């Protein structure tokens, strides 16, 4: 997935002798046919696919090979091969990780500071039932805002991670 693919094809006759000067076409992964070029070794042909589609799922895939030549009866063969999952490229430099972690920590600290500044203003010292209910409703609203902000941060983090912005995803995980 996403990388190049070299396909080596060796053609021999009934007696095991290599067969030169053939036209060989390779078809796989719903891509256009690719002509295999003859290598320096007699009877060996190489087909090169520069970039395999990332959208193609991993697992067993079909490959079809057509052989044409002057003294060869045209023949089409097919087989299966395993397409492996592409290695993820999530490397970030240490400086980038440290800076994004610092920003994440600063955002967390600011949020905690805001919470501790707002919480005392919502507290009521009166013992009347109405004042207590008003205080509880205010704290409930504050908690709701915190939960909604966390959910938005998580959704944003997942969105950034899915498009490859790992630094932004790291910031929003707080």
Automatic annotation (TrEMBL):
Entry keywords, A to Z: Membrane, Transmembrane, Transmembrane helix
Chain segments annotated as transmembrane: 97-116, 142-164
Name listed for the protein in its UniProt record: Uncharacterized protein
Organism, as annotated: marine sediment metagenome
